[in-house]
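Morning, I've got a small favour to ask if you have a moment. I've been staring at a protein lately and its backbone has me curious. You're getting the sequence in one-letter code plus the fold written as tokens. I've dropped the whole record in just underneath, so have a look:
=====
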Amino acid sequence: MLTLSQADAIVAAARARATLIGIAVNIAVLDAGGHLRAFARMDGAVLGSIDLALRKARTAVLFECGSEAVWGYCRPGAPAPALELSNGGLAPFPGGLPLRDARGALLGAVGVSGGEV
């Protein structure tokens, strides 16, 4: 189980990195069931990226891989074109990563949006 303390630490680490590289981002941390565990919108982060951070995290948790890997399945001519329209809307581009424990079990995912890929 992803604890609130762990989720808060992930948000803090993402905020620190974004600050270091000079961008304002939205950060969403979801549990293994795809439910929101923690969220932060940095001052100046683009409002339209709130939903993208959530969708990137949801994409990563639902498919248990980085959100950008899903593009290989849903791009035109791929095995599942328009897959990104499923599950309430996915975000098959970089910014979503699954979170795993030391044994490799899925704990949840983090999605970050607001800066360049």
In short: The beta strands are 26-31, 36-41, 96-100, 106-113. The mean pLDDT is 94. DSSP finds three helices and four strands in the chain.
